[in-house]
Amino acid sequence: MITNLPSHNDFEKVAKECFLQAIESFFTIYSNYKEYDDENIYEEVPLNIIWEHNLPISRTAIILLHQGIETYMKGVIVKSSPYLLLEQKRSDWPTLPNSHHKSYDSLFTIAGENLLHTFCAVCDDIQLDQKTIDFIEGVRKKRNLAIHGSGVYINSAEEIILDILKAYTLFFGKASWFVDLKEGRQKNPLFGYYDWDFESIQSYKYLDFLEATIGVTKLKSFLSFDIVGRRYICPTCLFEMTRKNDYMKSKWAFLAPNDKFSSTVYCINCNHDNEVERIDCYVGDCKGNVMNMEGICLSCGEQQF
Ligand SMILES: [Zn+2]
Ligand SMILES: [Zn+2]
Fold this sequence. Notes:
By secondary structure, the protein is mainly alpha-helical.
């Protein structure tokens, strides 16, 4: 008998961990860089120099991405049957009544082409077209290059981050990566000891990081909310930051609906809707006309008289 058969959830959890870990490793580098908060340093040491220096992180991120995709495919196959993943000849399976027990994890499982073909045969979780297969195959080739080549070209951090978000969105739906990143933070046993609400909204830093690496236009395709139009400081995020004597420069709130009479902004970071007033900002070069209910311009952050 084969014991300890894996479940779909086991694989899905590990697949997500691979992707999230890869994003977190880039995010940590970026966050450390941003801590310098000095334009002179940023001019002398632009972000791309930091990515070049951290090439090993890019290399392991590609490996994690590939591992995540293979694990996801295995999870889908396991839904049909975990036996479909076994490499061993069926006549060698220890499944007859008197055969010795063998734990599933001690057996060889399929990989590479066999895995892809089996996945395609049973998958009804996502829409499979040639583009998807090309993407999966493309990642496999990039991973081979990253592992086997000494000094060969490794994709830029931006490309790898894009591929991770692409895989996550393809497998788990739009914005799922952001929900899971936030959840991952909250599961940290130390989370909330300083201040639960303040710590919760710090997730805006992931959005800032992605804006700086892949750009807002590309980020758009991985979010469920259609981020069109001007961006505003979110009243809720602003409140949480100022409550702790911090400031909020990032703008992740949008008029909902996006028109000139709209009196609500929705924040994709904290998911809150906030009522706003439509008054022209007094600051000369600020074109803002969206204020929070305390009279702070959500474009430039200035308190109105
Ligand atoms: Zn917010
Ligand atoms: Zn203003």
